[in-house]
Automatic annotation (TrEMBL):
GO cellular component: cytoplasm; membrane
Domain of life assignment: Eukaryota
InterPro entries: Peptidase_M8 (IPR001577)
Annotated catalytic residues: 281
Sequence positions that bind Zn(2+): 280, 284, 387
Signal peptide location: 1-41
Protein name: Leishmanolysin-like peptidase
C-alpha cells in the first residue's frame, strides 16, 4: 500500500458506424456505397453503495467546533448506526460548518496500481489523477479537519451500537475493512469496539490498537487497478463511490476508485476525456450520488431530510436499499401535455430543488418558473437519479453519458454547495453553452415542441437537428465551432417507445415510419442533436473531430479539404458542393464533406481564415471563399463559408478597444491563389485504366460513451 498526496467508461460508439471510402478514377468519379452497422450504447452505471455497505460515524474534529457541538448518545439499532435521537444532535451551529479550507484529498494506492504497464502507470500517476484531484481541491472548500482521521472498522453484523459517540460492533469486528477493492491499512483504522448482543459489556477489543491515522486530509481516496468483473461491463475504464461518512455532518470521508487496466487508453487525443471522466467519478464519491442525497444539510447545518429519532439517520427506502431523501432535496413534477408524435403524454420528472441549484438553472436557461434541475430518468439503477438529464444539459460532465466536450458547470458546483458540506469556487466552473438563454420553452417542454415551434417560425432548431444521416455523409459544426459534427438522427431497428417519438414527419421518410427515427443517445430522450464523432479503423480510434487537438489532423494524403487542427483552430462550414482533388491522371471526390477545422486570425476589423499557406479575408457573413490550391501533389478545389466577424473576433477586438468593420465588397478573386495543374504535354492524351482505391475509415459517433463508476 502506497500513499500519494496531492473513473469511468471509455468513449464507446453508439448508433451507427459509417464506413467512408473514396475512389480514384481516370477523369471519372465513382462513389463506393457506405457500409452502415449498429452498435450498442453504454451509459454511466454508478454503482452507488447500499445503506448497509457504508460505514457511518467516523469521529473527526472540525476547526472551531466545540465539544458541546458534537453530541452523541448511547443507542443501538437493528440495522444501521445508532445515534442520539434528540433533534439538537442533528444540527450544528452555523459557524461550525462554514467552509474556508480548500478540500484536501489524499490518494492511497493499492499495490495493483504499481502493476500497471509503465506507460499507463505514468499517465495515471503523473497526469490523470493529479489533474483530476487538483481540480476538485481548487473547486471545493470544506471545514478544516483537525487532528487525524481514523476510519471505523467494519462489523460482521449490520446491527451496531453507539456508545459515547463511538460505533460498537456486536461481539467482533471484521478481520479486514475494505473500501471498494482496497483493504484499508491497519494504520488508518481506529480500534475495534464491541458490545454483546444486548448492548452491554461494551469495550475495546484488546487485540486491536489504534493506527497512526491520516493527517492533513479531509477525504481519503483509495485507488486500485484490478481487471475486475465490472471492468468487462461496457468497456468500463473505472468506477468509484464513497465508503465511510463522518459523524458530525455526514460528509463522505473516504472513498475508492478502481481503474480497469485493459480499458485505459494512452492516446493523446483521448487524454482530456479520460481526465474529465475521472473527475466525474471522484464527484460521485464526494457527494453527487443517490446514496447521499438524504444526508444533505442546509446552510445552518440542519438536515434537509428528517431523521429517525431512534437512529439519527434518514428513513430507509426498502426497495432501493438507500436512505430516502425529502421533497426539500428532490421533488417529482408532472409535465402535462408533453408533446410526442401524434399527441401528448404526461411526463413525470425528478427535479433537484435545492436553493442554489434552482437559482443556477433558472439563470442558465433564463426561465424564472423552472422548478429545479432535471435528473436523468433512464438508464436504470446507477444512471437514473444520479446524473443530470441529458436532453437539457447535454455536455454537462455529470450527465449519464459522455458524448462531447464535457464541462463542469456552475449547476454542478451549486449541487455540491447545497449538500451543506462544501463551498464552491465558481471560478472553476466552465461555461455551459447547451441550452443557454433558450428560455422555458426549451427547459420545460419536449424537444418535439422545440423543433416544431422553431421550424414553423423559420428559426434555428439548434441545439437539436432534424437531418437524417444518409449517403453522402454531410458534416456541420457544433454551435461553439469547436468540432466538426454530425446530426445523430438515425433510423433504429425498432419502433421507439411512444414517449421518445419526436417527429410527426421527416424529409425523405415514408409516412408511418417516423416512429423508427430518433437521436442515437437514448438518455437524451432520443432527441437528435449535433455531435462530435471519431474516425475508427478496425474499431481503433484513428482521430477525433475536435478542432483543438493537433493529433486529429488528417494524414496529408487524406486531407482533401486542407484542414488544420490544433490550438486556435475552429470549425467552418463548407459550401453545398463536395470538395474535389485532381492530379494529372485522376480525379477523386470524398463522400463526406460539409465542414472542416481551420486556423484563423482577427485583424484590421476582419476575420481571416487560413487555408494551406494562404489567408482569406471574410468581407461579410455568408461569403463563399473559393479555394483552389495545389498541395501534396493534388489540386484541391472547394469553398468555405464565412461566419460573422463578431462571432469569432468580437471579443478579441473589444478587448483591444476595436470592433468588426461593416460588410463590404469582397476582394477580387485574382488576389488569392488560383493554382493549376502542371502536367506533361501528352498527359491528357494518355489512356489510363480505371482504378478504384478504397481507404475505409469508420466514423463512430460518440453517442453514449458511458462513465462507469
Amino acid at each position: 500500500m502506497k500513499i500519494r498526496s496531492s473513473m469511468v467508461m471509455f468513449q464507446n460508439p453508439l448508433g451507427y458506424l459509417l464506413t467512408l471510402s473514396y475512389c480514384c478514377t481516370c477523369l471519372l468519379l465513382l462513389l463506393l456505397p457506405q457500409v452502415i452497422s449498429s452498435v450498442h450504447a453504454h451509459n454511466c452505471q454508478h454503482q452507488h453503495p447500499k445503506a448497509h455497505e457504508v460505514v457511518h460515524g467516523v469521529r473527526i474534529q472540525l476547526a472551531d467546533v466545540n465539544d458541546d457541538d458534537d453530541h452523541h448518545g448511547d443507542h443501538g439499532e437493528a440495522a444501521g448506526f445508532g445515534r442520539n435521537g434528540d433533534a439538537s444532535v442533528h444540527s450544528v451551529r452555523r459557524r461550525s460548518i462554514i467552509a474556508e479550507q480548500p478540500l484536501r484529498i489524499l490518494l492511497v494506492y493499492d499495490d495493483s496500481v504499481y502493476r500497471l504497464e509503465e506507460e499507463k502507470f505514468n499517465l495515471i500517476n503523473d497526469t490523470v489523477l493529479p489533474e483530476a484531484v487538483q481540480f476538485w481541491e481548487q473547486a471545493l472548500m470544506v471545514r478544516e479537519t483537525r487532528g487525524v482521521i481514523r476510519l471505523n472498522r467494519k462489523c460482521d453484523s449490520t446491527q451496531v451500537y453507539v456508545k459515547n459517540g463511538h460505533t460498537h460492533c456486536i461481539d467482533q469486528c471484521k478481520a479486514t475493512t475494505m473500501c471498494g477493492e482496497v483493504q484499508v491499512p491497519n494504520e488508518h483504522l481506529d480500534v475495534c469496539r464491541v458490545c454483546n448482543a444486548t448492548g452491554q459489556n461494551c469495550r475495546i477489543d484488546s487485540n486491536t490498537q489504534p493506527g497512526d491515522g491520516i493527517e492533513n486530509a479531509d477525504f481519503v481516496f483509495y485507488v486500485s487497478a484490478r481487471q475486475t468483473q465490472r471492468c468487462f461491463k461496457g468497456l468500463t475504464v473505472a468506477y468509484a463511490a464513497h465508503c465511510q461518512q463522518e459523524a458530525i455532518l455526514d460528509r463522505p470521508i473516504a472513498g475508492h476508485a478502481n481503474l480497469c487496466p485493459d480499458s485505459i487508453s494512452t492516446k493523446p487525443q483521448e487524454l482530456q476525456t479520460l481526465i474529465s471522466t475521472v473527475k466525474h467519478e471522484i464527484l460521485h464519491a464526494l457527494g453527487f450520488s443517490v446514496s447521499l442525497y438524504a444526508f444533505f444539510r442546509d446552510d445552518e447545518g440542519n438536515p434537509r431530510t428528517p431523521r429517525k429519532p431512534d437512529t439519527g439517520k434518514p428513513y430507509l427506502n426498502e426497495k432501493l436499499q438507500i436512505h430516502q431523501w425529502s421533497n426539500e432535496t428532490i421533488r417529482k413534477v408532472v409535465r402535462q401535455n408533453w408533446s410526442v408524435r401524434g399527441g401528448h403524454v404526461n411526463k413525470v420528472i425528478d427535479m433537484l430543488v435545492t436553493p442554489r441549484v434552482v437559482a443556477e438553472v433558472r439563470s442558465h436557461f433564463k426561465c424564472d418558473k423552472l422548478e429545479g434541475a432535471e435528473l436523468e430518468d433512464q438508464g436504470g439503477e446507477g444512471t437514473a437519479l444520479t446524473h443530470w438529464e441529458k436532453r437539457i444539459l447535454e455536455n454537462e460532465a455529470m450527465t449519464g453519458t459522455h458524448t462531447q466536450s464535457p464541462v463542469f458547470s456552475r449547476i454542478t458546483l451549486a449541487l455540491m454547495e447545497d449538500s451543506g458540506w462544501y463551498r464552491a469556487n465558481y471560478s472553476m466552473a466552465t461555461p455551459l453553452t447547451w441550452g443557454k438563454d433558450l428560455g422555458c420553452a426549451f427547459a420545460m417542454r419536449s424537444c418535439k415542441d422545440w423543433i416544431q415551434m422553431n421550424h414553423a417560425r423559420g428559426r434555428s432548431i439548434h441545439p437539436f437537428c432534424s437531418k437524417v444521416k444518409q449517403d453522402p455523409l454531410q458534416t456541420e459544426c457544433t454551435d461553439d465551432r469547436n468540432s466538426v459534427a454530425l446530426c445523430n438522427l438515425i433510423r433504429h431497428d425498432y419502433e421507439l417507445p411512444k414517449a421518445y417519438q419526436n417527429f410527426d414527419s421527416l424529409h425523405n421518410v415514408k409516412d408511418g415510419e417516423e416512429g423508427f427515427y430518433g437521436g442515437s443517445v437514448s438518455l437524451a430522450d432520443h432527441c437528435p442533436y449535433i455531435q462530435e464523432f471519431t474516425w475508427r479503423s478496425k474499431n481503433i480510434i484513428v482521430r477525433g473531430s475536435h478542432c483543438r487537438f493537433i493529433e486529429n489532423n488528417p494524414k496529408p494524403e487524406k486531407n482533401f479539404a486542407l484542414e488544420s487542427y490544433g490550438e486556435g483552430s475552429k470549425c467552418f462550414d463548407h459550401s453545398e458542393n463536395m470538395w474535389e482533388e485532381r492530379s494529372c491522371h485522376q480525379t477523386r471526390e470524398w463522400q463526406h464533406w460539409g465542414s472542416g477545422c481551420y486556423k484563423y486570425n482577427c485583424y484590421d476589423g476582419r476575420l481571416h481564415i487560413l487555408v494551406g499557406n494562404y489567408s482569406y479575408k471574410c468581407s461579410f457573413p455568408g461569403q463563399k471563399l473559393s479555394i483552389r490550391i495545389a498541395a501534396n501533389g493534388w489540386l484541391h478545389k472547394g469553398a468555405i463559408m464565412c461566419p460573422s466577424c463578431h462571432e469569432l473576433c468580437g471579443a478579441e477586438f473589444a478587448a483591444e478597444g476595436k470592433q468588426c468593420r461593416p460588410g463590404e465588397e469582397p476582394d477580387p478573386l485574382n488576389k488569392y491563389p488560383r493554382d493549376n495543374l502542371s502536367c506533361g504535354a501528352n498527359a491528357n492524351s494518355r489512356h489510363y485504366s480505371v482504378a478504384i482505391i478504397s481507404a475505409p475509415l469508420i466514423v463512430a459517433l460518440l453517442l453514449a460513451a458511458g462513465l462507469s463508476n
